[in-house]
Design a protein that fits this description.
Elements (H helix, E strand, L loop, with lengths): L10 H9 L3 H10 L3 H16 L8 H21 L3 H10 L13 E8 L12 H5 L8 E7 L39 H22 L20 E6 L6 H11 L4 H14 L1 E7 L1 H15 L8 E5 H22 L2 H12 L10 H8 L5 H13 L5 H13 L1 H10 L12 H5 L2 H11 L1 H12 L16 H21 L8 H21 L20 H22 L2 H18 L9 E6 L2 E6 L13 H15 L2 H4 L11 H19 L7 H12 L8 H13 L3 H11 L3 H5 L6 H5 L3 H23 L11 H15 L4 H7 L10 H8 E4 L8 E4 L16 H17 L28 H13 L10 H28 L6 H6 L11 H8 L9 H23 L4 H47 L1 H11 L1 H9 L26 E3 L6 E3 L7 E10 L28 E12 H21 L13 E2 L6 E2 L1 E4 L15 H27 L26 H19 L9 H23 L10 H16 L6 H15 L16 H11 L1 H4 L8 H23 L13 H21 L1 H4 L10 H26 L14 H8 L8 H4 L2 H12 L2 H8 L21 H9 L14 E4 L5 E3 L7 E3 ...
Antiparallel strand pairs: 1-2, 3-4, 3-5, 6-7, 8-9, 10-11, 12-13, 12-16, 14-15, 17-18, 17-21, 19-20, 21-22, 22-23, 24-25
Helix pairs in contact: 2-4, 3-4, 3-11, 4-5, 4-7, 7-11, 7-12, 8-9, 8-10, 11-12, 11-14, 15-18, 16-19, 16-20, 18-19, 19-20, 19-21, 20-22, 21-23, 22-23, 22-24, 23-24, 24-28, 26-28, 26-29, 26-32, 28-32, 32-38, 33-35, 33-36, 37-40, 38-41, 41-42, 46-50, 47-48, 48-49, 48-51, 48-56, 50-51, 51-53, ...
The protein binds zinc ion (ZN) (7 copies).
The site of one zinc ion has 6 residues, from α62.
Length: about 1750
């Protein structure tokens, strides 16, 4: 590939050429020339190709520097006429800073909007402005920016209140706007003008240049080489993977390079992937195109000459430069705007700005971003030019949108997305409507792009291609633009505005006409439909238009003339649509009860019917507005009310409602799911406002203008029920319809639905204009009905309420008046509960209830009533009054036809069975009767005012039926039904009705006789109520007495039971306090009252050692725990841990070479063992595990699913509690020890042990040498008396116990070191001791931090786990090679008693003393077993404890005495003695370290007060851990002082551990023995080294680790994350910034750029981080998602609720709601506790078991 090498000037030559260049001279020259553009172009033509694009790899820093020197600098000189820095500084002084903040948002940056003051939700503030604004005290919304857009601070139109933050508050002096140009000289203006026009033109020319191989005139460079780039362009069609794969093939690059190319292409929109001669680049291009052409569209690749690319690079740079330079001066900014918008030679729309916009879709992403930014910082920041720009934008609107339809880039990088900046400014929007007819333009453009219509001109979305679907998605953005334009309603209307709005309204009606009746359906009979028809597109359109329709209505409502005109237009459009209303349909006449009506024969179940009726619905709402605004009463003459044909108006909405009823009745089953979905959305909160709700209003509109009897007959006819009720013998329905049960069932449902509809038509009055209500009443009622179902969280309520275009439901204004807030606990969320007094608003037939809601609400309400001891009847509520226009609707209740229907149903219900009526039907009838009565009562109450007593429902229902024969009246029927046994459930309601009737009758009589008063009606009712109350009280009292009696009986029975089983109870009580006292009796040293856990005087289990019985959870058999019996095991989970690490920077150990014998005091890696405490036989467990394994293998063969546990790694779920486990711990009995009275003291013992060590060491050496055949240096050493080197003790354990000892040991080794299992490895016992030590230490820390006593507060499972873990650790040596364990002991012992023969022993500063103590104690049996001299293990344990304690004292004195001198104090008595002795020890240490040296590390102290306190605090955790250890090892009960918190812990601990409470005595009492040890410890080279580099030293006590501190306000985190850039791809924004809660590191998660390799697999940044930071376990906060992430290993993870809550006590995972979030400390502490308890993995396991979808997520890529 030699051809690639290109000739290029050497850098030095380039430099020298450039060095001679003078910007000042060049600028001076330019001042002289006549043709400046030509001269500047010549300059650019010469230099640009020399700076940019000289090789395959661009070098941005270098290029930018040169560009600054050679290209920008002369321009700046020219512009300023002097040294640019001086000139620009002067300009800056004269600058009037814009009052707009204009901060452009980065991706992921937090933005704030005030829900009270923002003109619309697109008005946002940056964090800085927000914090300095009044809105931070308001109800605000917080979101993260998707990039683009800017801060609206300072825009007075954007905010109803507080438009400025403190920083952007304008000075009062310059409130009047000056012309910015007035500040600078005319020459300067001219020069600036020149420069800007040349450079802007250059940039525009280059960016819109579409030739790959030549340059615009004047820019051709004389010397052009054969240098090309193969440029790859971005599209949204191809995936990352496709691009990466193709590039690897085409340009032979590595995967890594390909990823980097792809990332850049995605970010910048293009990237050169090859550099070389034309041929070479062309070749790559053809490979790429060939490889990708199989997909929909090949990747776009172009071979471009390097000089073209170079000029384009500089063009971008030049635009950025312009943006920078205008920032310093509003004058320059204005000139730039002027230049940009100046009309070009081609006339209209030919300015540079126009050119850029119109070429937008042809430019690559990077170029678009740069020029959009420039627009934002220039045109949009200048109030005058913003308007001019908006006009140009509007003029080009149709063109731009058409381009965008074809553009394959997202809208954020399209110039069309600037519409939000222009259209949301109300004055600009208003101007564009009037001047540019923008509304009409947008709507027409929209309609044009949706041009697939059927014969009737309706939209048709069947046969809908992918291409069209794409376009359909795009075209929806136009609706967004329309919304921006309409979002702020005019307060004043000009004639021009009226004219243009109505023109737009016309266009809008045209759009709705295309939707009226679209997607019609026909009932399928016989066969099921073959293909589900497309329905989503139509509903998407409807949903998107919902807000627009509402806004149109609000515009109309704001001006009477507009409303009248709009109403007329809408009516004529509707009439036009349905001129063929009766086409083909036969006219018929219906008659009932002596009423006749003309209508048509039409069956929903047979003809076409459509759910989409936007025109009808718009007219319905305009009609309600006529009423609401009172236009209908003020200007009736201007309204076409007489032209209205009520039957025509209701026809289509009624058909739609009937369709729903028939679907409910199951008549449309064969039409499939698409219809079910449509019906669902029709009622859904997202659509119902402009669908179902409006259909109902239209029925009300129609019915209010019709005879109610006619209305009901048409209703029945459309429900196809007319024949049932109209036939003369309709009351004997049963006889006729026996034939078909299904039909009966169907008709029953239809009757129910129809009755419900009548209830709604009469009862739904909560729309302003229909009833006399405010909009807040409407919301209140919605909330009340939601809360009647059950208490709800804020977000649930929000979801149940329709949002307006500002995403507001208006709930906050009224919620407190109807609900009480209940705060959340540590889990769960805050809930709103209905105020009891609001329950009376409950309406069982609330129109927004689904059937399920209805029955839930009914049940809940009845329950509450019963609990309050009230009647459980749910009568209809008192309703607001209708507005006059709708007032006649109440007559439906008392019209003849309705009464006939009610009577018929009541008549049917007389018969208990037969299925010809349903209970729901009856319930609805009773409700309707109730409504009539309530209505009449209300009329009576208010009749004193208007004397309107024409409504006389009671009279009507008392009259007998009119049909032949003496049919009884409704009232009579009810009285009969009251006693019908089969209607028990409805008795309450019937009784209520009858009581109401009686009460009304009395009222009427009173009014008739006496002057009517409100109170009479009331008092009447009140007496009734009082009586009720008394009755209820009596009943409640009786119930109480009954309860008490039962209770008494029960407690009597209990007493009896206890008496009978007395022995049993006593036994268990005795057993409870048996342990300490009775066992002490058996103890050999029973005279010793103190409890001691270690040493010869320790507590011993009694001679009759208590047997421990356990039950296997698998076979339920009881089993005694014995060393020689069947092994019992505990399910356990072993994991690596860094929870206690004091050094997270320590790199992970190399598992093969690491020697874990000595734990470093930083505890950087440990092995934790936990258990759920469930016990099994080892053989039962083995069988269970094998079964799990087999099942898993089958499952994996069948389908590749993950499970929450990894069988191959030995994982399983506890068979009882499903807790994740990966091994089992064997249960062992306490070891029996005896102790002879004659035991060696410390010095004797030390002597003997040293001799034993010597002998062992040489014996080992001899053995090694014998094997190695090297007999040179083995010195012979005779062992001390009674020490038999070749003795092999008998193993006391049964084979199954041994097997389990090996199993658990190997598992601990495998997990702890991350190695393959090898039971022979010498490190197996070490890992077991380590895990025991680490687990005890971590539990000790937990107890401290949770402020719990050391003993008695652990849950059983932990207690059992620690006990079995400790006993196991003391036994695990028996299954290892004894020689190995002995040599471990030799080395451990050498750390305390230095031994020249043993090397590689760390100094005492580098040893964790608790681990040392524990390992010594646990490895010693392997040595002790050789001894037959009668030395006891207890003696050894005590001596180990004493020695290690002294070593720890020294360690603490060396490391943990703070530098700063505190107040020294003098103490008296015993304290005094301790202080003096510690002081002495300290000074001895100073001596050993050498006086000169130690000065800097150990300062001199005069008194021990401070020292003693430091020592005590430092050593306490060690003592506590030791106490736990010996407790579990030896089984000694702990003294009561340690079962409680408080003073005395120290003394109790020391006593329990058989230590003097002045620990230094250990040293003082054996000074001659200790002194040489001390000296040798201090002389270890490691000590000096450690003290010199003090920083790395670990101090004691080690502080507990906590999760990082989080800010109180969540937005602080978002802000922090928004400035975080991906560490790998140089300054890029990270898509998923994720915070490690353990160490505070921010990571770039879920992204290609930060993937790395771990153990041969690609893993994401989080997984990689957990391996270093958390030994595989990680806790993260995904900042953009507001979500906690738990990870364990590579395959496990789950999401967890974040510790941030909004004011309503709810989390916001995904940040969708945008309520301000604040840290909830309790929840954060809960997460922290999970972590510190090592329960993260367990938590993940439970989450994955509960939610299988979590298992499928690729956690390792996060
Ligand atoms: Zn701002
Ligand atoms: Zn501001
Ligand atoms: Zn505000
Ligand atoms: Zn068993
Ligand atoms: Zn369990
Ligand atoms: Zn971390
Ligand atoms: Zn990254």
């Amino acid at each position: 590939m030699a051809a690639v090498e290109t000739v290029r000037e050497s850098p030095s030559a380039l430099c020298s050429d450039f060095l001679n260049f003078s910007a000042k001279d060049t600028a001076a020259n330019w001042l002289q020339v006549s043709n400046l553009p030509q001269e500047v172009y010549r300059h650019l033509a010469c230099y640009v190709p020399k700076i940019y694009c000289l090789g395959p790899n661009l070098n941005p820093q270098n290029e930018d520097l040169l560009a600054q020197l050679l290209l920008q600098s002369p321009l700046e000189w020219y512009l300023c006429g002097e040294e640019p820095s001086m000139g620009l500084a002067k300009l800056e002084q004269g600058n009037q800073p814009s009052q707009l903040c204009g901060h452009v948002f980065k991706v992921g940056e937090p933005t704030y909007s005030c829900r009270e003051c923002a003109a619309d939700p697109t008005c946002v503030l940056c964090m800085q402005c927000f914090l300095g604004s009044v809105h931070k005290e308001h109800r605000y919304r917080m979101t993260t920016s998707g990039g683009g857009g800017f801060c609206d601070c300072g825009d007075t139109e954007a905010w109803k209140k507080g438009p400025y933050c403190q920083k952007h508050e304008p000075n009062i002096s310059d409130t009047f706007q000056k012309d910015p140009l007035a500040n600078i000289s005319a020459e300067m203006i001219a020069r600036t003008y020149n420069v800007f026009s040349i450079i802007l033109k250059y940039a525009v020319d280059m960016l819109t240049w579409d030739k790959d191989d030549e340059l615009p005139e004047g820019l051709e460079s004389p010397a052009r080489g054969d240098m090309y780039y193969c440029m790859l362009f971005n599209d949204e069609v191809h995936t990352y993977e496709q691009v990466i794969y193709t590039l690897q093939k085409a340009v032979n690059c590595t995967q890594k390079e390909a990823v980097s190319f792809a990332t850049t292409v995605d970010r910048d929109g293009r990237k050169s992937v090859r550099f070389g001669d034309f041929q070479f680049c062309e070749q790559a291009k053809s490979v790429i195109v060939r490889n990708t052409s199989r997909q929909t569209k090949p990747l776009r690749v172009e071979v471009m000459h390097s000089s073209v690319v170079a000029h384009q690079c500089f063009a971008l740079r030049a635009l950025t430069w312009l943006g920078q330079i205008i920032r310093s001066s509003d004058a320059l900014r204005r000139i730039l705007c002027q230049v940009g918008l100046q009309q070009g030679l081609e006339g209209e729309n030919s300015s540079l700005v126009d050119t850029l916009m119109l070429c937008d879709s042809k430019m690559w992403k990077g170029a678009r971003n740069v020029y959009h930014q420039l627009f934002m910082s220039s045109l949009l920041m200048d109030p005058k030019y913003k308007k001019l720009f908006a006009i140009q934008f509007a003029k080009n609107y149709r063109c731009l949108q058409t381009d965008f339809m074809e553009d394959d880039h997202e809208r954020v990088v399209s110039v069309t997305s600037l519409s939000v900046q222009l259209f949301t400014t109300p004055t600009v929007a208003r101007m564009l409507i009037t001047e540019e007819n923008l509304m009409t333009t947008i709507i027409r453009t929209f309609v044009d792009h949706l041009r697939h219509q059927d014969l009737q001109g309706r939209f048709q979305f069947e046969r809908y291609t992918a291409q069209q679907a794409f376009k359909f998605r795009r075209v929806q953005s136009l609706i967004g633009d329309l919304k921006y334009v309409l979002i702020s309603r005019p307060t004043e209307w000009s004639d021009k505005l009226r004219e243009k709005f109505l023109e737009g309204f016309d266009a809008f009606l045209e759009l709705l006409k295309c939707m009226q009746g679209m997607d019609p359906v026909v009932r399928q009979v016989g066969q099921h439909i073959e293909m589900e028809p497309e329905w989503e597109a139509a509903f998407t359109l409807q949903m998107k238009l919902t807000h627009i329709i509402s806004m149109m209505q609000e515009w109309c409502a704001s001006d009477k003339r507009v409303l009248i005109e709009a109403y007329k237009k809408c009516l004529s459009a509707l009439t036009h649509c349905h001129s063929g209303f009766t086409d083909g349909e036969q006219p018929i006449i219906l008659s009932m009860c002596g009423h006749f009506v003309d209508t048509i024969r039409y069956c929903v179940s047979q003809e076409k019917v459509s759910i989409h009726l936007p025109l009808s619905r718009l007219l319905a709402s305009l009609h309600a507005l006529l009423s609401k605004t009172e236009v209908a009463y003020q200007f009736p003459e201007q309204l076409p009310l007489s032209e209205l044909s009520p039957p025509m108006l209701i026809e289509h909405p009624l058909r739609c409602l009937v369709l729903c009823a028939q679907v409910h009745a199951g008549m449309w089953r064969r039409n499939g799911f698409s219809l079910v979905n449509q019906i669902y959305y029709y009622h859904n909160v997202k659509c119902r406002v402009e669908m179902f709700d409006k259909d109902l209003i239209m029925l009300q509109v129609g019915a209010s203008m019709m005879d109610p009897n006619h209305f009901l007959m048409i209703l029945m006819s459309r429900f196809e029920l007319y024949h049932i009720f109209s036939a003369p013998d309709y009351r004997k329905r049963s006889s006729r319809e026996n034939a078909n049960k299904d039909v009966v069932q169907q008709n029953n449902t239809l009757i129910e639905e129809m009755l419900h509809l009548v209830i709604m038509v009469v009862g739904e009055r909560y729309t302003a204009g229909v009833g006399q209500v405010e909009s807040s009443d409407e919301i209140k009622r919605e909330i009340v009905h939601q809360l009647c179902i059950r208490p709800m969280a804020h977000s649930e309520l929000v979801k149940a309420l329709p949002e307006n275009e500002n995403k507001e439901t208006g709930m906050e204004r009224v919620i407190d008046s109807v609900a009480l807030f209940k705060k959340p606990g540590v889990t769960g969320r805050g809930l709103y509960k209905l105020r009891p007094e609001c329950a009376k608003m409950f309406n069982l037939y609330f129109h927004h209830y689904s059937r399920a809601d209805q029955s839930k609400a009914e049940e809940a309400q009845r329950k509450i009533k019963r609990q309050n001891g009230e009647d459980s009847v749910l009568p209809p509520p008192v309703l607001p009054r209708f507005c006059p226009l709708f007032a006649s609707l109440v007559n439906i209740l008392q019209c003849d036809v309705l009464l006939a229907i009610l009577g018929a149903v009541l008549q049917w219900s007389m018969e208990p069975s037969g299925g010809h009526w349903s209970e729901s039907m009856l319930q609805r009838v009773l409700h309707l009767i109730g409504m009539g009565l309530v209505e009449e009562q209300q009329h009576l109450i208010s009749s004193s005012e208007d004397h309107d007593t024409s409504f006389n429902f009671t009279l009507k229902i008392s009259r007998p039926g009119e049909s032949p024969g003496n049919t009884p009246s409704i009232l009579a029927l009810l009285e009969t039904l009251q006693n019908a046994p089969h209607l028990e459930v409805y008795k309450d309601m019937i009784r209520w009705i009858l009581k109401m009737v009686a009460s009304i009758k009395t009222t009427r009589e009173c009014t008739a006789s006496a002057p009517p008063t409100d109170s009479s009606g009331h008092s009447q009712e009140e007496t009734v109520r009082d009586k009720d109350k008394a009755e209820r009280k009596r009943k409640a009292e009786m119930a109480r007495l009954r309860r008490e009696k039962i209770m008494a009986q029960m407690s009597e029975m209990q007493r009896h039971f206890i008496n009978e089983n007395k022995e049993l109870f006593q036994q268990s009580l005795e057993e409870l306090d048996v342990s300490p006292s009775s066992s002490l009796e058996h103890s050999p040293s029973s005279c010793d009252s103190a409890l001691v856990c270690v040493g010869p005087r320790r507590w011993r289990a009694g001679g009759s050692e208590r047997r421990q019985m356990v039950t296997c959870i698998l076979c339920q058999e009881e089993q005694e725990i014995r060393a020689d019996g069947k092994a019992m095991v505990l399910a356990a989970f072993v994991q690596r841990s860094t929870v206690m690490s004091k050094n997270r920077k320590r790199p992970p150990h190399n598992p093969d070479k690491y020697d874990p014998l000595f734990m470093h005091p930083d505890l950087s890696f440990g092995t934790h063992t936990g258990s759920c405490g469930h016990i099994m036989h080892s053989h039962c467990w083995q069988r269970y595990f094998e079964a799990v394994q087999a099942k898993e293998q089958r499952r994996q063969q069948r389908l590749r699913v993950h499970t929450s546990y990894d069988v191959e790694n030995g994982e399983f779920l506890c068979p009882l509690c499903e807790c994740l486990s990966n091994t089992v711990i064997p249960l062992l009995p306490l070891t029996k020890t005896t102790c002879s009275s004659d035991q060696p003291d410390l010095s004797q013992w030390l002597n003997i042990t040293s001799l034993q060590m010597k002998a062992l060491h040489s014996a080992h050496k001899k053995n090694n040498c014998a094997e190695g055949a090297d007999t040179g240096s083995a010195e012979d050493c005779s062992p001390p008396h009674g020490f038999k080197l070749d003795y092999t003790p008998k193993n006391p354990y049964s084979s199954t116990v041994k097997e389990m000892l090996t199993t658990f040991g190997t598992a601990t080794y495998k997990v702890g070191l991350k190695v393959h299992p090898n039971e022979q490895d010498p490190r197996v016992p070490i890992m077991c001791w380590g895990s025991c030590g680490y687990t005890i230490q971590s539990i000790e820390r937990l107890l401290v931090d949770e402020e719990k006593p050391l003993f008695g507060s652990l849950p059983c499972r932990q207690d059992d786990c620690l006990s079995s873990l400790t006993r196991f650790s003391s036994a695990c040596w028996t299954v290892s090679s004894h020689t190995t364990v002995q040599s471990h002991f030799i080395r451990l012992f050498a750390a305390l008693v230095p031994d020249s023969r043993v090397d590689n022993i760390p100094c005492i500063l580098d040893i964790d003393m608790f681990h040392l103590l524990l390992s010594l104690v646990l490895s010693h049996p392997a040595v002790l077993c050789l001894d037959s001299s009668g030395m006891s293990a207890d003696t050894a344990q005590l001596h180990f404890l004493h020695l290690v304690t002294v070593a720890h004292l020294v360690q603490i004195l060396l490391t943990s005495i703070p530098e700063e001198v505190r107040m020294e104090q003098e103490s008296a008595g015993a304290e005094r003695e301790e202080e003096e002795s510690v002081c002495m020890l300290y000074n001895t240490l100073r001596t050993h370290l050498g006086r000169g040296l130690c000065f800097s590390w150990l300062r001199e102290v005069s008194s021990g007060w401070h020292l003693w306190r430091c020592v005590k605090a430092g050593i306490l955790p060690y003592l506590r851990a030791a106490a736990l250890f010996f407790h579990y090892l030896n089984g000694a009960p702990a003294p009561p002082e340690l079962h409680a918190l408080g003073a005395g812990e120290w003394e109790a601990l020391c006593g329990y551990l058989c230590l003097p409470s002045n620990l230094v005595q250990l040293y003082n009492n054996n000074q001659e023995l200790m002194e040489p040890l001390l000296q040798r410890w201090c002389s270890h080279p490691g000590v000096l080294q450690g003290l010199q580099t003090r920083a790395a030293l670990i101090g004691f006590p080690r502080e507990s680790n906590y999760l990082i501190e989080l800010p109180e306000d969540y937005s602080a985190l978002i802000n922090q994350a928004s400035s975080f850039t991906c560490p790998k791809s140089g300054g890029d924004k990270s898509r998923a910034p994720t915070l490690c809660l353990v160490c505070g590191a921010m990571l770039c998660s879920q992204s290609y750029c930060c993937q790395s390799e771990l153990e041969g697999e690609d893993v994401g940044a989080c997984t990689a981080h957990t391996f270093a930071c958390g030994a595989g376990v990680g806790i993260f906060l995904r900042v953009r998602e507001s979500q906690v992430l738990f990870l364990a290993g590579k395959t496990k993870g789950c999401f967890y609720a974040p510790p941030y809550l909004d004011d309503y006590g709810e989390t916001d995972q995904g940040l969708r709601r945008g309520n301000p979030l604040h840290l909830c400390q309790e929840r954060y502490r809960k997460i922290q506790k999970l972590w510190r308890q090592h329960s993260i993995t367990e938590e993940i396991g439970h989450a994955q078991e509960a939610n299988q979808t979590l298992v499928g997520i690729d956690w390792q890529h996060l």
